[in-house]
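RECORD TYPE: inverse folding
INPUT: structure tokens
STRUCTURE:
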């Protein structure tokens, strides 16, 4: 029997809360995969524990990696990762995780036998063609153009042209494993603009942090030289995209929300919230936080990794560079302004920005995010449908949404198995009584503690 819909709490006063966030999904799944491909045992600290991260752990285990939890706390899990020969014959469940369905197949193509892949029903609809075609052209055999499929190597690498306008993860997935391909890789994108470029920068910076030579100097072309991937001790940054609904609560309620350990320099898409929320009426400041030792002298890294070894590709894995962090403080007035924004680079922030737009006093236009139709659900259709179901005025455009002010009323907000739809419903519920979010449990994709964190935020003073 499905769980009852979650009554989204309505804020009765401005929120005043400090919300520490668990590790980034994008950094965690890259760090685990790179550790599994490394030339020796390594450690990934403060890794996210969530459905997507658990799926990555299970996938890497199925391919022969040993992952042992060393320590687990509210800050995440520290994994000891011991690579093994990449083993075929297994099965990978990708769930609904883009990072698993796009990042693991290139690794599986290095295995000594076939590896099968499948996922949630909607995962079969998410775009896979360009990356599977690319792997074929590099030597792999694959029996389908979408999930489910079975992939067999060997794969030698080389040059490939693809259209990555559907997802930056096609590029990131190929780049992450490419140092292990005999010929490395040269990827050339041809087509409409690639979305989520900061996520590709995250891939490039994390590869460089483990000693891989990457040339990303030419627009739409990326080159990785074959070579070893260095074992490292890496620490994952907090998930800045998951900060979005909490920071939105400051705007909606006229309160203040502080996120500790916000990296001063980062490739995470969530960093764009500072500008986006300012445009929507917030005051955003960074105050010196509790920087880890070594932070001030060395300056920031931007690999998505912090901690020993993260930025010294040639050292013995104990380099002493820790990026500076700050407390990010966002204060709202209770009045939200509409926004006209191109979110192509930071598409995963769209559901929260759309929720704010639905509560804004002036119209909003969100552009550049046609690729969201291939996310956990068709997010443009889902957002328009659910905002309008509550009495709002949201219109889908070819590449985004137009949202005009209109008073909202209570009702069911469907989440379509999409964690960010569920949290968008929670944001609207702060201001609109009797919003019920269907399947709030889907937040476990990247933030299993969402409900407890949301409740704690509303209860703290
Ligand atoms: O590489 C990554 O970790 C991600 C890339 C982006 O995917 P798209 O380029 O498909 O939007 C982003 O939306 C997703 O949440 C995570
Ligand atoms: C698009 C997202 O996820 P995925 O990694 O599954 O693509 C997201 O988290 O917003």
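DESIGNED SEQUENCE:
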């Amino acid at each position: 029997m499905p769980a009852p819909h979650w009554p989204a709490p309505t804020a009765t006063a401005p929120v005043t809360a400090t919300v520490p966030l668990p590790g980034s999904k994008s950094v965690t799944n890259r760090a685990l995969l790179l550790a599994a491909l490394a030339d020796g045992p390594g450690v990934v600290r403060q890794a996210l524990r969530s459905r997507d991260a658990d799926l990555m752990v299970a996938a890497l285990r199925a391919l022969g990696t040993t992952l042992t939890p060393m320590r687990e706390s509210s800050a995440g899990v520290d994994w000891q990762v011991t690579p093994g020969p990449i083993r075929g014959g297994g099965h990978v469940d990708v769930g609904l995780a883009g990072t698993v369905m796009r990042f693991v197949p290139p690794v599986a193509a290095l295995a000594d036998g076939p590896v099968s892949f499948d996922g949630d029903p909607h995962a079969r609809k998410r775009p896979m063609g360009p990356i599977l075609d690319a792997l074929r052209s590099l030597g792999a055999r694959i029996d389908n153009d979408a999930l489910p499929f079975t992939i067999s190597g060997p794969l030698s690498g080389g040059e490939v042209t693809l259209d990555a306008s559907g997802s930056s993860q096609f590029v990131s997935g190929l780049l992450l494993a490419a140092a292990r391909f005999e010929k490395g890789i040269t990827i050339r994108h041809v087509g409409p603009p690639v979305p989520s470029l900061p996520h590709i920068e995250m891939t490039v910076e994390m590869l460089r942090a483990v000693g891989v030579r990457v040339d990303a100097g030419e627009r739409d072309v990326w080159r990785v030289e074959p070579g070893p991937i260095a074992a490292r001790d890496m620490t994952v940054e907090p998930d800045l995209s998951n900060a979005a609904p909490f920071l939105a609560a400051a705007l909606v309620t006229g309160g203040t929300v502080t996120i500790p350990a916000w990296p001063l320099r980062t490739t995470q898409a969530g960093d764009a919230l500072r500008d986006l929320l300012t445009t929507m009426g917030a005051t955003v400041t960074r105050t010196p936080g509790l920087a880890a030792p070594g932070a001030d002298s060395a300056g920031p890294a931007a690999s998505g990794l912090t901690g020993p070894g993260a930025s010294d590709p040639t050292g013995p894995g104990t380099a002493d560079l820790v990026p500076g962090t700050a407390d990010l403080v966002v204060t709202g007035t209770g009045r939200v302004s509409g926004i006209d924004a191109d979110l192509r680079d930071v598409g995963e922030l769209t559901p929260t920005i759309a929720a704010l737009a639905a509560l804004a006093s002036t119209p909003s236009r969100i552009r550049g995010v046609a690729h969201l139709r291939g996310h956990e659900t068709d997010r443009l259709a889902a957002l328009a449908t659910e905002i309008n179901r509550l009495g709002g005025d949201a219109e889908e455009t070819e590449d985004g949404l137009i949202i005009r002010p209109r008073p909202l009323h209570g009702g069911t907000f469907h989440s379509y198995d999409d964690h960010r739809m569920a949290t968008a419903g929670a944001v609207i519920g702060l201001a609109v009584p009797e919003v019920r979010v269907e399947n709030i449990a889907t937040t476990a994709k990247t933030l299993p503690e969402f409900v407890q964190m949301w409740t704690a935020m509303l209860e703290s003073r």
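NOTES: The chain has two domains: 6-22+238-459, 25-236.
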